[in-house]
Amino acid sequence: MKTKIHVPPIKIQGIKTKLIPWIAENVELHEDTRWIEPFLGSGVVGFNIAKKNALFADSNPHTISFYQKIKSGEINSSLVKQFLYREGEILSKKGQEHYNFVRERFNNEQNPIDFLFLNRSCFNGMIRFNRNLKFNVPYGHKPERFAQAYITKIVNQIKYLEHAFSLNNWEFKCQSFEDTLNEVKEDDFIYCDPPYIGRHVDYYDSWDETNELKLHELLINSRAKFMLSTWDNNEYRENEYLKSVWNDCFKLNKEHFYHIGAKETNRKPMIEALITNYKKSTKPEVEEMPEKNYVQMDLFSMIEKISTQHGT
Ligand SMILES: C[S@@+](CC[C@H](N)C(=O)[O-])C[C@H]1O[C@@H](n2cnc3c(N)ncnc32)[C@H](O)[C@@H]1O
Which domain holds residue 109? Predict the structure, then answer.
């Protein structure tokens, strides 16, 4: 895998940036394997790991439209730079009033560049839509958010995507995971990072047991190799679906720390899991000793022991 991790311009809860090296080590991809990602989110996983062919999808139309417009050139790094300088200056003078103004404008016009502004200046970089499909995350209370260094960082993130999108055959679709998985061919590789069960906080991002069972069924029936990111356990709870739904798959674990709030002391461990329908052999296979050899070894050591006891 490329050593530098490219962080995308969109932020999202549950972003997998820190887990990318681990995911990359364990995927099974060839140069011409098509990468299928039904739960794209920020795109950080696929944009760093996919090869030249990919289908990126999500039920959230705003992230998909943002990336589609970068791909078509409708949104580009110089446009974003001008826009963030202009809007950022107004934000520094008017604060919350301007944030609310852009949020209202976005909710009426759905312009993806407004979505970027909101995503980078809202509370905790969250993405949340109510049932009337309105973005409803409050202001992050940082009027100086779009300082020069921050704008440069975002502009460079967009430049990287412009470059990557021009080199690769990467397709973006706003659709449900069912529709995406119905497009899969046996030699594709599927990476899934669905929402966690029971967190019904967002219109586009809710998940329940029926979804989990459907996802399992579609992945198994696809006959393609797949990897699912999920959680295994934390200090209070275990992910019961690993035993009840995913028990016919392989599992890899890794400890990961996440922060609650801003305090460094609020660092909580979480055991992450990668579920696959294949076993990746990273090391050369160790030839297993035939069982009868173990028996012979036992006989030899017994004879040796008896001889020592009898002084022979
Ligand atoms: C945990 S996030 C993925 C995070 C991503 N791996 C990253 O690192 O940025 C889950 C994503 O699934 C999408 N999603 C939720 N329900 C969906 C569904 N039924 N079909 C397709 N996408 C869905 C959400 O919009 C969200 O972007």
Answer: 60-170
